[in-house]
Recover the amino acids of this structure.
C-alpha cells in the first residue's frame, strides 16, 4: 500500500487518468513511476519521501526540485530537463514529462557538457533567492583536510592554511547565479534525439557553474560510479562547455577551475554517499579505514583528487602552490603505504541504466 501510485483527483483532472503504472528503481529518498494514461501518453510520477527518516528534508528537496525544473524549462531550443506537468505539494508529488532515453553511446561527454553549460546559463542575478545558494566547503572542511595530513605524518607548511582560507573566500557562491543541478551524475542525464536532459534536481542551487564542470577532472565527486577522464577528451569537453557558455552569455566562464577542483578535494563528505554526509568526519576515517562507495574506495577517490589538484596547481599563478605541493605529498604517501590502490575507472566504463 505504501508504494501505491499517489495520483489524486486533482492530478487526474489536470494530467489525465492513469491506466497502468510501473514502479522504477530510485533512491530511498523518492519513489518514481512510469505511468501510461488513458490517452496512451506516458508521464513520470515522482514522490519525494523521507527515506525512512522522519527528520529528513523531504519538503525542502521537493521544493528545490520543482523550482529547479521550472527554471530549467527556460531553455531556448532543445530542452535540458523534463517539463513539470502538475504537482501535489502536500503529498510531495510531481508529474513530469516522460523522456525517452536513447541509452548507451560511446561519445557521451560532449553532449553532456553542452547541456550542462546551457543549464547553467539559464539564470542570473535577477533569480537570487529562487533557489538556495550552492553549499561548498567550509573552514571545518579545510581543518579536517589538514588534520588528515598530520595524521598521516605528512608535513603541512604554515602557508597552506592561508591558501585554503583564501580558497574558501574565492568559492563564495554569492556573486554567482548559474543554475546548478546539484548531482549531475550518470543516470541523471538522459540522452535524447535533441540532446541531453537532466533529471533529479533535488539538490538544485545557484552558484558558479565551474563546480559542476569540475566533475570531469575531479572524478564525478557526488556519484557512486567515480570515473577518470583522459587528457584529450577532457580538453574537448571543457572547450565545449566554455564555448557554449560564451555563446549564450557573451562572456567567459567566471572563476578558476583549479579552485573548484580544490574545493571538492577538501570536502570529506564527498567521499561518501548522500545518506552518510554530515554524520562524521570522513577524513578522520581514512588513515585506518578504506571504506567503499560504489565501485571504488575512499582512498582511491582521494588519491585521484589529490593528483588532479597537484597537477593543476603546479604551474598555477593562483594562491594554491602550497596546497598543490601538499596534495602531491599526500598522494605519494598513500600510494607508498597502500600500493594496491587502483586508478579510477575510465570514463568509457560509465554505467548505463
Amino acid at each position: 500500500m505504501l508504494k501505491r501510485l499517489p495520483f489524486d483527483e486533482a492530478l487526474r483532472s489536470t494530467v489525465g487518468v492513469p491506466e497502468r503504472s510501473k514502479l522504477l528503481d530510485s533512491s530511498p529518498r523518492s519513489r518514481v513511476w512510469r505511468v501510461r494514461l488513458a490517452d496512451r501518453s506516458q508521464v513520470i510520477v515522482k514522490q519525494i519521501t523521507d527515506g525512512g527518516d522522519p527528520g529528513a528534508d523531504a519538503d525542502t528537496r521537493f521544493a528545490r526540485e520543482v523550482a529547479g525544473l521550472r527554471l530549467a524549462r527556460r531553455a531556448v531550443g532543445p530542452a535540458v530537463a523534463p517539463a513539470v506537468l502538475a504537482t501535489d505539494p502536500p503529498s510531495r508529488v510531481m508529474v513530469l514529462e516522460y523522456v525517452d532515453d536513447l541509452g548507451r553511446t560511446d561519445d557521451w561527454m560532449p553532449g553532456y557538457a553542452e547541456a550542462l553549460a546551457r543549464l547553467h546559463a539559464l539564470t542570473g542575478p535577477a533569480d537570487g533567492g529562487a533557489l538556495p545558494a550552492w553549499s561548498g566547503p567550509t573552514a571545518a572542511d579545510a581543518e579536517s583536510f589538514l588534520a588528515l595530513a598530520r595524521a598521516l605524518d605528512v608535513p603541512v607548511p604554515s602557508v597552506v592554511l592561508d591558501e585554503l582560507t583564501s580558497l574558501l573566500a574565492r568559492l563564495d557562491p554569492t556573486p554567482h547565479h548559474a543554475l546548478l543541478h546539484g548531482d549531475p551524475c550518470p543516470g541523471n542525464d538522459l540522452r535524447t534525439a535533441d540532446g541531453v536532459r537532466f533529471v533529479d534536481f533535488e539538490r538544485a542551487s545557484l552558484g558558479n557553474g565551474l563546480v559542476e564542470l569540475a566533475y570531469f577532472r575531479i572524478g564525478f565527486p557526488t556519484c557512486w560510479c567515480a570515473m577518470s577522464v583522459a587528457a584529450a577528451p577532457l580538453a574537448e569537453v571543457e572547450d565545449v562547455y566554455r564555448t557554449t557558455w560564451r555563446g549564450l552569455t557573451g562572456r567567459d566562464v567566471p572563476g578558476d577551475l583549479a579552485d573548484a577542483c580544490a574545493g571538492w578535494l577538501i570536502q570529506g563528505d564527498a567521499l561518501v554517499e548522500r545518506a552518510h554526509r554530515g554524520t562524521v568526519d570522513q577524513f578522520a576515517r581514512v588513515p585506518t579505514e578504506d571504506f567503499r562507495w560504489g565501485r571504488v574506495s575512499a582512498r582511491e577517490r582521494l588519491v585521484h583528487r589529490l593528483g588532479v589538484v597537484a597537477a593543476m596547481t603546479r604551474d598555477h599563478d593562483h594562491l594554491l602552490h602550497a596546497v598543490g605541493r601538499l596534495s602531491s605529498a599526500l598522494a605519494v604517501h598513500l600510494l607508498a603505504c597502500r600500493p594496491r590502490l587502483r586508478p579510477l575507472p575510465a570514463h568509457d566504463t560509465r554505467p548505463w541504466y
